[in-house]
Give the backbone structure.
Amino acid sequence: MRKALLTALLWLNLTAPLLAAPIKIGYSAWPGWFPWKVAEEKGLFKKNNVDVQMVWFEGYADSISALVAAKLDANCQTLNDTISPAAAGAKLKIVLTNDNSAGNDQIIVKKDISSIKDLKGKKLGAELGTVDHYLLLLGLEKAGLSAKDIQFTPIETGAAAAAFAAGRLDGVGVFAPFTTKALSTGKGKVLFSSKDFPGAISDHLVFREEFVKTHPDEVQKIVKTWFDTLDYIQKNPKEAVEIMARRAGTSIEDYKSYDSGTRIFSLAENLATFAPETKVPTNLHYQSKIIASFLVKSGLAKTRPDLNALFDARFIKAQSRTAALP
């Protein structure tokens, strides 16, 4: 009897890997990811019976590195910042679209710079290889310039905003809330932003592929928690904004000003963005091909990964079926 019980327990251990609690999800300063702080503070993960630790990163690039190094189970990051490590061999899965940047990623320059062509020869800074470096290169290409036409300084986003405010750079690529710091002296202006490149900067919950394979039920609960959080924010806007502004380190007024620059995706919009390829900027299959080609061309990635393998739509589809139930 004891032998049979021991055999059964060993079989369970082999077929159902134990979950090392808590599940660690990285996030950093971006309006589309601050809702996770609401989920944490209001106990929405626990309500869905999933043990999650939100891990805060002051430097966005550090969170990407932590995911690739398996120090996190999941991370909040952009599509292009997921394609780059995937091209280098990282096994990752995008399971949720939080939002699309619609102006909160900005190229901020000195007021005497009137056009993108005027950036030629100027000192510009951004976090190397990440989202606003990508935005800067997109803008340069649109104006017929390249990275060789500027003096580029690789610098962490918060430090870039501070360096620009101190007058040490002619321009920077930064995202909210760091845009507030960059513009705080009144000596800068927005030259262009993610609003000029619809769909180019999408923000996601990205898991390590191994975790998704071994713990799909937990992934599903976390996806559900995200939509529960959006519902909570809609019903309790004052309290939610206070929580998010506190995490952002900004005033409530400044935080509210970020609303128009971040388009939070509904469940229906998630279904559309994960759908089979269509020539719509927000479609992940379509946009990922554009991004991958650009990253290789600009030297930010050596090769294109298997893009279809990046996307796992089953959790969004399952959430949609559940949400449709009476």
Remarks:
- The chain has two domains: 20-100+201-291+300-323, 105-196.
- The radius of gyration is 21 Å.
